[in-house]
Design brief:
The complex is a heterotrimer of chains A (about 290), B (about 475) and C (about 325). Chain A has about 290 residues and is mostly helical. In chain A, about 75% of the residues lie in helices and about 5% in strands. Chain A has a single domain, classed as ABC transporter involved in vitamin B12 uptake, BtuC. A two-stranded antiparallel sheet of chain A has the order 1-2. The longest helix of chain A is centred in the N-terminal third of the chain and has 34 residues. Chain B is α/β, with parallel strands linked by helices and about 475 residues long. Chain B folds into three domains: about 30 residues; about 240 residues, Rossmann fold (3-Layer(aba) Sandwich); about 170 residues, Rossmann fold, CATH 3.40.50. Helices cover about 40% and strands about 20% of the residues of chain B. Chain B is built from 14 helices and 17 strands. Chain B has a seven-stranded mixed sheet, with helices on both faces. A six-stranded mixed sheet of chain B has the order 3-4-2-5-6-7, sandwiched between helices. Chain B is globular, with a radius of gyration of 22 Å. By secondary structure, chain C is mainly α. Chain C has one domain: ABC transporter involved in vitamin B12 uptake, BtuC. In chain C, the strands form two sheets. Chain C has a two-stranded antiparallel ribbon with strand order 1-4. Chain C is globular and about 65 Å long. Chain C starts with a helix and ends with a helix. Classes of the chains: A mainly alpha (about 290), B alpha/beta (about 475), C mainly alpha (about 325). Chains in contact: A-B, A-C, B-C. Chains A and B meet through helix 1, helix 4, helix 9 and helix 10 of A and helix 3, strand 9, helix 8, helix 9 and helix 10 of B.
Chain lengths: ~290, ~475, ~325
Amino acid sequence: MDASVAMYVAQGIHGLAYGMILFLVASGLTLIFGMMGVLNLAHAAFFMLSAYFGYQMLAWTGSFWLALLVAPVLTAVFGILMERFLLKKVHAFGHMGELILTVGVSLIVLDGVKAVWGTESLPLKMPPILEGLVQIGGMQYPIYRLFIIAMALMLLAILSLVLYKTRLGMVVRAAVSDAEMVNALGINVPLVFMCVFGVGTWMAGVAGVAIAPILTVFPGLADQMGMDAFVVVVVGGFGSLGGAFLVSIIGGLISSYGVQFLSQYAAVLMFVFMAVALAIKPMGLFGERE
Amino acid sequence: MKTMKRLLAVTIFLSLMGLLLASAVPAEEMKPKATFDFNKFPDMSDFDPNQPVEPGGDTIKIAIVASFSGPAAAVGEIYYACVAWAAHTINKQGGLMVDGKKKMVQVFKADGQSKPDVTKKVTERMILQENVDFLWGTNGSHLQKVINQVADKYKKISVNAASLSDELQEGQDFSRYSFMTTFSTEQIGRTAAYYYGQVRKKEKKFYILCQDYLFGHSMAEAFKKGIKEYYPEAEIVGEDYHKLFLTDFAPYLTKIKASGAEVVYTGDWIPDAANLLKQARQMGITLPFVDIFMNEPRFLVEVGIEGTKGLVNIGQYGIGNPAFRNEEQIKYHKAWQNARTKWKAPYDTVLYTHPSGNIGAYITSVYWLLSVVERAASTDPDKIIKVWEDDVYQGPSGNVYKMRACDHKQIGLLTVQEYVPPEEQKQSYNIPPYYWFKDCSNAGPVHEVPIEKNLPKADPTLCK
Amino acid sequence: MNKKTKSLLWIAGALFLLIYPRLFGIYYANIVVTFAVYALFASSLNLLLGFTGLLSFGHAMYFGTGAYGTALALTHIPGLPLIPAVLAGLLASLVLALCIAPLVVRVSGNAFAMMHMAFGQLMFVLALKLRDVTGGEDGIGGFDIPPFSIPGVISLDMTDPILFYYFAMTVIIGSLWLLWFFTKTPFGQIMVAVRDNAKRVDYLGYRVPHTKAVVYVIAGCFAGVAGSIYALFQNLVAAYDAYGILTSFVPVMMTMVGGVGQFFGPIYGAAIFGLIDEFTTRFTDRVELVLGLVLVLVIMYAPYGFAGFITKMRLRWAARKAA
């Protein structure tokens, strides 16, 4: 492959890889919102919490895979606890209450991780098998980034299958459109919601552990990632998994090709895209009318 | 005849030497007026930043204005350990004679939360409520600017030990109450260029990658200026400015790789510096970085010996090799390491292994301040200014710093450290265990860049 | 409480504010100015949120634009007097509000909140990027603060913190009074009706988007005034303080904690936040933890905020008295 072509291709794959990480974080956020109407501002904090859990698991067991498996589950448990004991109680006071509550929780998590793990940047090493580079058509590419792309695609596939092809998914979707009716049919709707919340935070947790080897684990991790994920959800349309997926990829590509061609304005491009998209479609590209 | 010739040769040689000495102006000018006194250095084994001994009564008060909460709280912790260490040194000696009274040094934490408005508020509180004598800060030129402004307003001394932007001590922003006790962007950029153009003379293609704000742009400007000055045949093959706290460096690194650069010059600090290096190595990019903050041991260890080999770090604390030239310096170094064995979180990490590098520079700045206080025998700002201007101080590392009177900037020699694997670090770390860090590359060959080659920018309206 | 005691209380309050800086000194005077700026900022947001039911995650846009407007005017126009400098900030916010209003008045709920976040963040990254104009992270600072002067009558040095306190408090209390007055006008009543039942307002023949637009622009202007005073007070405007996401969140949280939909809610909220900040930063590094706990506890146990809590207590007291 010609060197400059290789560069453009590499930028494309970088965009995809970053887009996939965005998607992992954003999918949980959009799922929770779509199903339950809760805008979870603590989502990014859970993402960070999971990275810390992952660091700890790796430190204890030495296994990245165990960390990837356990940390998101632990995070999901925290998410479920928050849903069960806090969020549910304030549901009666509408969106505003939920917003304030989740901001409060995210502040507590932020200070909590500092109390437990300190303020330093902690390393989370990738497993040796994913280290190194692979040859693609005469171009070298880090295996780990390809692994992230593959994992995100797999999760998307499983998630869509469950949601659209199983009975469980049907119940979830039905509960979203008319919770009372589904409840009357004898299905435990609060339980369904709790599960959805758990799955949503679990996704953020997976993203947290997955991204940690590329970044450092430190108390600012949530801020670093949170805003980008939020943009994806907003532009994709709240609650739209497909929208989040598409916009994640667009966002990833904008950021990598933006650096390549319009380096000066790379940081602004995503927000310009968001502002334009929302000015045209206020509910996001795939959002439904309220 | 032969003797005549010989005599002539000797005369020529001597006069040449004289000329050389004369051109290295500062020799006389840089003669220390005060030196860190190892003889008075007390037993510091009881020092613990977790349980600081707070002196009561009438004290010399220093407020550290920095982030003690929020994502950047690590910065405040490092500052605190350093300032408290220096204060403890003096207190164990019985304090300083100030305004006719023996006074201890008391350290305050002022949490500016990395926000300009909060920084202003806490700085005012320190002055108006706690009656502090000195403000000591901080990371971020925008925050240091606020501290300097408040200091100027209430006529208190502000010590800038961590904001590197030359602009802080220039034009409108200059205040006679603020002193910059750190190297500056201009010094760093020119030192890097000097090293590559006049010392190393090897790589010719450079790429500039800095953070997209005042500091990053100043760093880049300084390097470009230095290249013009010291290495005109070199080429800047590209420059980029990325947003702060960037997550994905891959697009920039791909561009750098395609540009054919041989060295990447960066002013990034943690976490950007860490992520940049990590992601570069993960992508198989082995280019050396010339940097100032890519020296935090924790992530260097993570990247490993191989990945950190060839990094070039510019520092202000030490002097050339070897790092330890006498028993007293070794004793001082060991005193820190001995005390530190008892420290608990957050001070129990590898970051605090050596009282040198950034930590050494922060500590030295406080020693210098307190030495000025001792000689002024007062905390009165005007008396302090009088002593500090044109003062020359030798710190524990043996490096000598001068406070330029016209704009209150620190001048001194800088070092360029080439990172090598542990087994080669002996040339620098010349005491057991003969390496700085076991699991990463670190300073091996160290080159001094003399003062006259790295002088910081001088605002012509201030420095005539 | 009858009218007489009420007005007596008001007079006592005004007198207290008047002698306050003499009693407590510069530091506490500055704290009150900060509180007052946020009280006005949050009150302007409450006009949208509490009275019209529009939640904005980008209200910092107007605060920041007001601040930059004043700072830029003072930097670039030599000899600009004080009041026109404040008006410059107001005008900047007004123009921005007029540009954005047509885009946002037709949506509500989450779309409204998110669009504001989008525009707010766009302003933020632009402020960071256009360093030549805004100074980026470092911002614009050190501009001359003109004295408050009526030619031939008086000239007060505004760099004196105590004198500035009087100026800032006068402007802010005046603005708050205007806001309060506005909610009591017939138009203000329509505004509340839009929140409660927009359709009915529509049927009654009032045009909902127009009503919203007017409220929106007014809210933007008052946020601009708050920003302008803030710029004068800090003598510095930087991107993070002006447009950061936190600057948009803080007034929302203040309003919620103080009591949404009540005129004094955001003022209580600003006071509570000020107190929390003052105490926590003195005694602990765990600022976020305390703030987080307060938010969670408030929303769990006092969801109508401090104002709601007072109303409840008053009702209980009245009930007991009646019994």
